[in-house]
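User: Please predict structures.

Assistant: First:
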Amino acid sequence: MTIKPFSFGEVPKQTRCRWFVRRGATTHFDRGFRAKGDAGNWIDAMGTRLEWRAGFTFRLQGDDTDIAIVDRKGDVAKP
């Protein structure tokens, strides 16, 4: 089974986002989520692609870089 690699294109493009996706040291502020609940649901939708998850930080199968939901300052969202 081939695991689909992460792409920032998977992150919804919305206006007035408060939460963004950071992969390693890269954060794209043009895509994200208005609410933490939406971000959590998006992570849950990764399903079998998830290798592990701790709150709003996770890693995908076959990837060696953590992905996190962060605010505009770069602070990781708290559950």
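Second:
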Amino acid sequence: MTREFDIIIFGASGYSAIFIIEELAKTDKSKSVKWAVAGRNKAKLIEALKTASQNSGVDLQNIPLYIGDVNDAISLKEICVKTNLLINCVGPYILYGEPVVKACIENGTDYLDICGETFVLEKTQLKYDKAAAEAKVFIIGACGFDCVPSDMGVIFAENNFDGQLDRMEGYLEVMAKDRGNSPTINYTTFLSALMSMANYDKLEEVGNQLMPKKLPFNKSFLVEKRPFLFKIKGLGNLGIAKSGGDSGEVVGKDAWYLPFFAADKSAVLRSQYYMYEKEGKRPVQFRSYIKVESLLRAILTIFIGGIVYLMAKFKLTRKLVELYPQIFTCGQVRVNGSPSRHDLSKTAFRWIMIAKGYSYSKNPQLSGRDLMLQMQHAPDAGIKICVSGPDAYKTTAICATQVALTLHEERNKLLTSGGVLTPAIVFRKTNLIQNLDDHGIKFEVLSVES
């Protein structure tokens, strides 16, 4: 059935959605993609298109707009039947995501979002994967800064390694220079994180239902369990040879790291579980960490994060955090506040992802044979990659746009016809990594030992 639009951006007046509008407008200069915007307030949609026009330099005054509300099933249906793909930007997703997913499945519309709420992502897969697969609809969550760079980073490392990877550690660094006085995080983004904290204790139960089998990691050579707070004397010293050469400060500085509690670890695990279950692929163990500027900043982060986490557990105290986030985050978040464009322009990120495994040259018994053969020695080769890009909101816009366009243009390359899936499961055989690289999310091999 031919539909009026290829893509509709839903919740298009939101902070993150405006970045996606701008990115789609700049990317689709030939106007080969038919797209529109939708939301619950016409005046705000018009203002969003005006803002996006000014920032992108593309005239968007003729972009169609439609009115719809997550609490109005009829309006959701009317929007879904108009488009092949819906990009849902209405968060927090634990409050507003499920009706949109349900409407897309019922109306045969592909869906993607920029959700970073692990509980929601796993619960959605548990509840709707079968229905989406039967309807041949793609429901793809976490198509932004969470979790495209990390999930596709694992695929990139595997594609550039002559052997079988066994484990990977990802080290995220967010770099900000000469920032002004605006909030660091958008208020809605913060609310999503707060709701994730509130549901953190439910993750184990949902995860066990979603992935009931234990992945066959080699228990004799598990990925290292690091302390909650630890220091590394340069990422060049983690056991990977520098045969490819390293790029200066990427590996040269000592740094403190904390566990990274975003949805990336869950996304990678779900990708690896799927590929093991469906294809018998050796799963890659994955752990993720985030860099902090100093020991003092690390201690403050632990202290503030701990307080917010505890307050998120109870409805009354969570409400206090929602009402007065500037107090509980030391000004990093403000009610209805967002980072300024100027401050975001001074911000960038990079993932240093260090993987270890078994090379085919050293272990010919692995090549073309039993992929799950348990080796009797520790990994003997590896690869170090870097995935980098602009600030989180710009990166989210690039990722969501390229995921949407790749799904639109390369459907014939997909290995499945539908379901609730991660980016890596859907796009590992497509040109998504190259498309991201062409638009500012860089994938680089830093060094290889094989």
